[in-house]
Amino acid sequence: MSKREQILYSTLELITELGFHATPMSLIIKKSNAAAGTIYHYFKSKEDLIDTLYSDLKEEMGKAIIQNLDLELNYKEKFFLICNNLFSFFTENPKKFEFLEDYANSPLIHKEIKEINRRHYQQALDFIESGIQIGMLRELPLILMINLIFGNISCFSRMIILEEIEPTEELLNKVIQSSWDSVKIN
User: Fold this and answer.
1) What is the pTM of this model?
2) Structural domains of the chain ordered from first start
3) How many other C-beta atoms lie within 10 A of the C-beta of residue 156?
4) What is the C-alpha end-to-end distance of the chain, expressed in Å?
5) Is the pLDDT of residue 186 over 80?
6) Are 104 and 113 within 8 A, CB to CB?
7) Where does residue 100 fall: left (phi above 0), alpha (psi -120 to 50 degrees), or beta otherwise?
8) Is the pLDDT of residue 1 over 90?
9) Which of 96, 106, 102, 20 is nearest to 58 (CA)?
10) How far apart are CA 163 and CA 156, in angstroms?
């Protein structure tokens, strides 16, 4: 692991354990075994470090969402695959999931950081927009569509991570079907 990666990993660990405000740079320096100068070589500030972590995780998530997206699948099958991929990413990476959810919904993140990072999952957004254009999905604002579709996956993932519910493939398919039903044209 490179020094930059160690700093980012340590930051992820600390923030998911202690929260944003309770994670000072001094703890990040200590946990990452990096000198302050090394951290400031890679990142201008704590805010820059957190924004970079967010960006790196969004990129990783974006790649995970579209993996194995076979062009031979029909639209609904692709929809289910994307949702399955997102679920797998979240449940296989609970700290990353927690960080992404918490930061994206916190007052700490700037709107432009969210906008910049859309590029990492633009292919999934284009897929949703294409569904509207071809008449498979309802005409709703894209941000609402994203929340209707992925909100179910996020909620289900959180319940599994917190061990509030026992995951089964059948239950996951019902959750994804619920997302599909909320946005498809009847």
Assistant:
1) 0.92
2) 1-43 (1.10.10.60), 55-183 (1.10.357.10)
3) 24
4) 50
5) no
6) no
7) alpha
8) no
9) 96
10) 10
